[in-house]
Design goal:
280 residues, alpha/beta, 13 helices, 19% strand, binds ligand C2E, binds magnesium ion, EAL domain-containing protein
Length: 280
């Protein structure tokens, strides 16, 4: 475009920008191929009832095995998948894979647990999301109440009215709904009361600094008691140490997720963990 305006202006783009643009194009191209080539895979991270050590849920976390760049984490490519719309087919693949895996574990006789799947804003904005999910549940044979969807506050707040209607439809189907990264968004308390949700997930950022930062400790305590008041379940993310676990447990936060219990691991490793129990 710069060139069209002025024939001599091609250097308008710095070489650094050219590289960025090129990198982006390459990434987008290889992302398109990745779905066909089955270069995406899921890891699963346990969500633990710390009173009993039971695994109550597993969160599916997307990874991309890039042919040249190795394994890429979602923070590096989800934004581009969102911008290009590729998040729609990728997100469907995630939902389908996670639901089939959950059903497989159920058929192997493991204790009932939820499968938690992250949804991004663009996915959540699809008018027929409920139908897509209903079809995937039917196809996989997974009961709706075994599926939990994780959505951030900012995703809901992009379009609070229509998104609340979609949340209600999903909830009516029997699906469980969690607000992810809670505390980092900007939803007001009055909205929170009206969202038809089941769970708050306390963001890792607050949990991480509980020991050194009294403000963060206070915020976490407030979120836990707010969840209890609103009759919502609460899960703390990013629990890496035993003292953190003990602090949270003493404040009546029962469910936790984090490296203390397990990093996100492959389905095979989860099968072993389900057989032997968690050690932490
Ligand atoms: P999230 O949903 O908040 O997931 C939790 C993230 O925290 C994961 O990063 C997990 O690996 C990491 N984590 C868990 N426990 C600990 C801990 O104790 N310490 C530390 N330092 N980190 C911990 P991951 O897998 O890189 O995913 C990052 C984000 O990408 C997710 O945040 C989620 O927002 C998004 N994401 C992941 N999978 C999907 C997907 O299938 N679809 C969509 N739309 N987004 C996804
Ligand atoms: Mg999540
Ligand atoms: Mg989170
Ligand atoms: Mg996050």
């Amino acid at each position: 475009q710069a060139k069209e305006r002025d024939g001599n202006n091609f250097q308008f783009f710095s070489s650094e920008m050219n590289i960025k643009v090129l990198e982006r194009m390459m990434l987008e191209n290889s992302m398109r191929k990745a779905l066909e080539r089955e270069d995406f895979f899921l890891l699963y991270q346990p969500q633990v009832d710390t009173r009993t050590g039971e695994i109550k849920g597993l969160e599916a976390l997307l990874r991309w095995r890039h042919p040249d760049m190795g394994v890429i984490v979602p923070d590096k490519f989800i934004y581009l998948a969102e911008e290009t719309g590729l998040i729609i087919p990728i997100g469907e693949w995630v939902l389908r894979t996670a639901c089939f895996q959950a059903k497989a574990w159920q058929q192997q006789g493991f204790a009932p647990m939820r499968m938690a799947v992250n949804l991004s804003a663009k996915q959540f904005g699809q008018k027929n999301l409920d139908e897509t999910i209903a079809a995937i549940l039917l196809e996989s044979g997974l009961d709706a109440d075994r599926l939990e969807l994780e959505i951030t506050e900012s995703t809901i707040m992009k379009n609070p009215d229509s998104n609340t209607r979609m949340l209600q439809k999903l909830k009516d189907m029997g699906i469980s709904l969690a607000i992810d990264d809670f505390g980092t968004g900007y939803s007001s308390l009055s909205y929170l009361k009206h969202f038809p949700i089941n769970r708050l997930k306390i963001d890792r950022m607050f949990v991480r600094d509980i020991a050194n930062n009294p403000d963060d400790a206070a915020i976490v305590e407030i979120i836990i008691s707010m969840a209890h008041t609103l009759k919502l379940s609460v899960t703390a993310e990013g629990v890496e140490t035993r003292p953190l676990m003990e602090f949270l447990a003493s404040r009546n936060c029962v469910e936790m997720q984090g490296y203390l219990f397990s990093r996100p691991v492959t389905a095979e490793e989860i099968t072993t963990i389900l057989g032997n129990g968690l050690k932490y």
